[in-house]
Give the backbone structure.
Amino acid sequence: MIIGITGTLAAGKGTIVDYLTKKGFKHYSMSGYITKEIIKRGLPVNRDSMVAIGNDLRENNSSSFIAEELYSEAKEKNENAIIESLRTVGEIEGLRGKDNFYLFAIDANPEIRYYRAMERKSSKDMVDFETFLDNEKREMENTNPNKQNIKRCMDLADFHLINNGTVEELYAQIESIINEIGFNEKKVSSGRQNYISWDEYFMGVALLSAERSKDPSTQVGACIVDEDKRIVGTGYNGAPRGFDDGDFSWDRKGDFLNTKYAYVCHAELNAILNSTKESLKGCTLYVALFPCNECAKAIIQSGIKKVVYLSDKYKDTDSHKASLKMFEMAGVELKQLETKTDAIKLNFDRRKW
């Protein structure tokens, strides 16, 4: 069960989260996701930055980008979860048709909410009452699905809670709703917990593929996955079929015809050409290095809609800038992978099995 929470400023969204986390729900915060991005960009953490960066992430990816990122993470872990602070119609529409998703909306009188905001002493809430109301008004309605429209989000909710009373009264409302939708507290699983995520798995396949490369300086692998999490293509940087590795130089410098660049196929292109699917529309490509501009063209033309990468160490080059421009124009989603582990050892010693 995955519960989304929307509502007015300081209405009690955090109180719902606190109650449900004690029931075993994992908390995923829209504002937390945006706050990390604000800090990464070196901006002040305040209400203006929250709105601006949230809008920027949605406009440069999709209207439901952040919400679906959090939903996918929760779904992958097969756990009851809460996604807090849904504020745009695009987010609601992106989650509405997903399995076992419910939307809660919470509201309270403005004076009560302002008092609660002052009590929690968050830097983004320390304003006078008039500014508090102005901030909320700015987020209440908007015809752009990428921007805050709390009023419409609340209208779309499956369940509505009014929080003008005590905490106990709010808890009673929550309990009644989760009982109605059939919540059962999960028993703690006795299964292995330190398994890798899907993203780590597919990136691991890409890294293992790279070990086939004969390039003495750079080994890159790629892995293509369809929407059902099936691997449909792999590749690594190497010469075209029929070439002997000794037929050309692996040098990086010198006359073009005497360097590897005239002859080598990159991992992404090889993965696309080696694909077992007739169409790669909607697939995801995993690769260690951010794709060059030539591979970006092939990725876009093949219909791949998401690229997950580890490193963008060439981000200052024209090739990288061209790739980024093309991906943005074509609507290809980009994700730099953050992993829970730095390395995984493969053990081929049969005596240890």
